[in-house]
Design brief:
The chain has 9 helices and 14 strands. By secondary structure, it is an alpha/beta fold. Helix 5 links the parallel strand 9 and strand 10. The chain is globular. The two termini are about 35 Å apart.
Amino acid sequence: MYRFGIAGIPLGSKGRTVKDAVENTFQLGLNRIEIQLFRISVQEREMRDFVGQNPKELDEVLLVDLLRGNEEGNFESIGINNTIEEDDIGIELFWSMARDYKEVSLARDIAKELDVKITLHTPYYVDFSNDAKLISDSVQHTIWGGVIADALDSEFVITHLGLVQGDRKKGLQKIGKTLKEVVTRYKGLGIKSTLCVENSGKPEVYGSEEDIDYLQKNVKGISSVTNISHIYSMQRDSLIEPEDFSTIVERTKKKNRPMYFEFSGVEFLDNGEYRITPIKRGNLKFEPFADAIADIDDELSVISFSPLLEHDALYMKVIFERSILKKIGKVVKPLPQ
């Protein structure tokens, strides 16, 4: 089974909700979407008007946590799988893609009906290694993302790690400790989605192959997804032939990582930096990657995060299907005349 999809809402979508995004993705002939948790804000609110109700049944309220006082009078997180009591404080999330869990549930049900799989991506500005306040906020955003992802039946929650500042090893150890906290909270809240680290495209950002190996070895319960364009930006011109990409695919299999790949064009600038571009315009070509993944028997997902979002997703799907037909043609011998 192979799935092609997009990171974000289709550019041609008139609606901006999760439901709209799922429906439009299906209408385009795609069956995977990476929902991005951007432009969100939260506020605390008293819950006296909702006593006895389930947080997921409230109209036009999207709660991501309930806080309840303990014996010492301190408020602690208890999650949203509890009936609301009078003195509880709710953490209400404001998200442009859904107002309440009824909208989230509708999007989830439509995705199941249409066989469109959903992944959720945390905000790009999360940082698990530096300023204490930023780490705390990043943990909260990742937990809130997990709550929404779980409600959407999302298989994965994808996150970045943050900037390298100071000693890389110590920073990585701090990230590991923080991610353990997130995984523990996921378990406590009953979140079934797997937290996945995305590899970085710059050396000053955590997420190298070595970083991810360390984290997966030391933090049980996390995994990783593979951004091919980021690998290319780190290794420059090393990904050219199908064999080059096959090495990445085999490594992904060997390390028991999901066959979940993100792809876009990459263009290098005069100052040594790079930028994401449409695939046909960039230096990174999809055809050899398509040849490398055409033999994969496991479920495969390829996500476009190109500026030409759905256009390039469909372009990759066509190229991939051609690669499959090409391989079938080599295997099937012509009948004797």
